[in-house]
Every structure is written in C-alpha cells, then in structure tokens.
Amino acid sequence: MSPLAARAFTQVAALAIAFSIVSQGWISTQGMIAEGGTVIDGVWRYLGYFTVLTNAFVVLVLARSAIKPGDRTGLNAPRIELMALTSILFVGVVYNLLLASLWDPQGLQRYNDNVLHIGAPILFAAYWLIRPRGELSWGDALFAALWPGAYCAYGLTRGALDGFYPYFFMNPATTPWPNVLTNLSGLVAAFIVAALLLVGLDRMGVRRQPQI
C-alpha cells in the first residue's frame, strides 16, 4: 500500500470509529435522561465501558498517525500501538463471546454496535499490519497489559462509588469477590498471552538483511 493510500485509510478508519463513539454516546445519554438522569449522568455512565474507552484510544492512535504518518513516538510508539491492538481485539472477542447475546440493538444503535465491536478491531488490525515491523520486544506484552489492568482498577473503583458495574463478571453485587478477582485475573492473563502472540507475529515479519 502506498503512503498516500495508507494515510487515507487511517483517516477514514479514525472518522468511522469516532462517529460511532459519539453517536452511541448521544443515544446512551438520551436513554439516561429518559430515566430521570442528567447529561452528566449519561456521559459518566457511558465512559464506564472498556469498549468505549478502548475505541477512543484507538481513534487517538489512528488520528495521530494520520497527522504524523512517519512518527514512531508517543501514541504511535510500537508498544502503544500493540497495547491498542490487543485491547481492541479483546473488545471484539469478549463482547461477541460473552455479551452480544444479552441485548438486541436496532437501527443506528445496531450499526454503532457493529462498528465498535467488529469494525474497529478489523480496521485497527489492518492498520497495524501495514505498520513497520520488528520494533517490539517480548517485554512489550506486559506493558500492553497495563491498559486492561488500569481499567479493572478504574471499573471497580467507579462501581464502589456509584454502584454501577458495566460487566457482569466484575460485579461483586452478583458475583462473589473471589470470583470477580479470578475473572479479571484470567482476562488479564489471556490479554498477555494475546499480546505475546502479536509480538511473535511482529518478529516473524522481519526480513533479515543480508550480511555484507
């Protein structure tokens, strides 16, 4: 893919995902208002989801790459892009295996659901595959796990404050604390394994230069 085409793809992907984040946030906030809440309540609730935060993270990575396509620092550092990729792939896998059957969205909400849980993982994986290879180390897999680890702490703290836990497997009101901790530890461990596989894929893609 030419640099111009790659940049155009990155821009389109960022805009498509950003549209669904914003429009789904508006739908979610309207639902909260209909239940007697405020706009602040709606935004606060919306920002409690790992899916939303991870998709926003992905948009920031894509947007910065579109602005500075050759830069490999900051949000476009290889280990940060690995973190974003593993996280958005995890969103797609966990949602479709554990959560998709729990509701049946319609209309724009269904479109957003597909973009945030299926489209975004595919688009970002495609983006990652056209990026330079061979810049990751095995330790970067542990670094990538900081994102889900931080979310676990964030989600549990939020829930302790307002009583809302966005995912059933981290809700101590319905699941005993030992099971909650086991669930979250298992997810983080699976995340690290996935990140290690991606690091391995990255290292396999490096073409050895001839020795002169």
How many strand segments?
A: 0
- Domains (count): 1
String of helices and strands: HHHHHHHH
Largest sheet: number of strands, sense, barrel closure: none
End-to-end distance, in Å? 29 Å
Specify Rg, calculated over alpha carbons. Answer: 18 Å
Query: Helicity range of the residues?
Result: over 70%
Global morphology: globular
Overall residue-averaged pLDDT value: 93
This entry's quaternary arrangement is: single chain
Which band does the percent of strand residues land in? under 5%
* Low confidence ranges: 207-212
Number of helices: 8
Structural class: mainly alpha
Description:
With 212 residues, this protein is an all-alpha fold. The chain has one domain. The protein is 72% helix and 0% strand. The protein contains eight helices and no strands. The protein is globular. The chain starts with a helix and ends in an 8-residue tail after the last helix. The relative contact order is 0.12.
Q: What brief labels describe this structure?
A:
8 helices; disordered C terminus; globular; 0% strand; 212 residues
Describe what is shown at a glance:
This protein has helices spanning 3-34, 39-46, 50-67, 78-99, 107-129, 140-144, 146-162, 177-204.
Give the SSE layout.
Blueprint lengths: L2 H32 L4 H8 L3 H18 L10 H22 L7 H23 L10 H5 L1 H17 L14 H28 L8
Helix pairs in contact: 1-2, 1-3, 1-5, 3-4, 3-5, 4-5, 4-8
